[in-house]
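User: Could you write out the 3D structure of this protein bound to TUI? I've included everything you need below.
Assistant: Certainly. Input first, then the structure.
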Amino acid sequence: MLITRVSKLLGIKYPLLQGGMAWIATGKLAGAVSEAGGLGIIGAGSADASWLEKEIHTARTITDKPFGVNVMLMSPHCDEIMDLIIKEKVPVVTTGAGNPGKYMLMLKEAGCKVIPVVASVALARRLARQGADAIIAEGTEAGGHIGEMTTMCLVPMVVDAVEIPVIAAGGIADGRGAAAVFALGAEGIQLGTRFICAEESPAHISYKERVIKARDRDTVVCGSSTGHPVRVIENRFSRSYLAKEKEGLSADELEKMGAGRYQAAVKGDTENGSLLAGQCSGLVKKVEPAAAIVKDVMETAEKILKGLCDRL
Ligand code: TUI
């Protein structure tokens, strides 16, 4: 069994986190992952506090184990979301798409473990100084909003830069990727894309099928010119968006064009919606229960790491 500072810090069996994907990481999915021994995370995305409150309660009907909430820092509802997290005594908060510095003190004072997602060494260092409990270093292979560094390079650089435990994200879909990032010095892993295809995920079956059918080069990055690049599976919408981007449409117009598209995809509009997913889509083979994903990834990683030891 792989025991790390991350599993100890969070009080979980496996140092595996499920990514806080907006509209997909619901209380039902997060509850199932936590019940299986990982850390399930509810993605607050751009939803309001009343949506989140229901999802927290759903997670608590499924599990009494720890779970987390991911706060997307560009959300207009950030302040009310943070207040609810404190009121509900959510044990773990992860953040994405920005710098959570201004919320750090209030969360820590409420006894909440704070684990920001970063895409750079500089932000990792700053947040470690401000009291983050751990850091998720997310490579550009990830789905959704991304930075530029690869997981392979970013993870060991962040490991060298901070003393707190580092969790690797971006490009990990199975035990092989997990074993690889543990070798890079990560003490935990976060998987998003594979959990899109969990049975408990609310993503429409045609979204799940697009992830399963995707091959190595089927994801593209939209929105680089807006300053908010987002990795998606190529479809009619991504092609028309990229064409407009090439024509030089303004960031404002591009943002407008993208509004509501994630939710449309989750509901099943796989041509006009935005199919957020990582490069590792090509490694996802089937729809299966969240617990089977957790078990497969961790057991395979352990087998690989033991096998490597035996060969030394
Ligand atoms: O946040 C994510 N993935 C996401 S958020 C999202 S919703 C969205 N839609 C359009 C534009 C922006 C967001 C869809 N997918 N992953 C974690 C992550 N955080 N990846 C990269 C970052 C990040 C980027 C810049 C974190 C901090 C950051 O810092 C900027 C600063 O303020 O220093």
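The chain has a mean pLDDT of 97.
User: Perfect, thank you.
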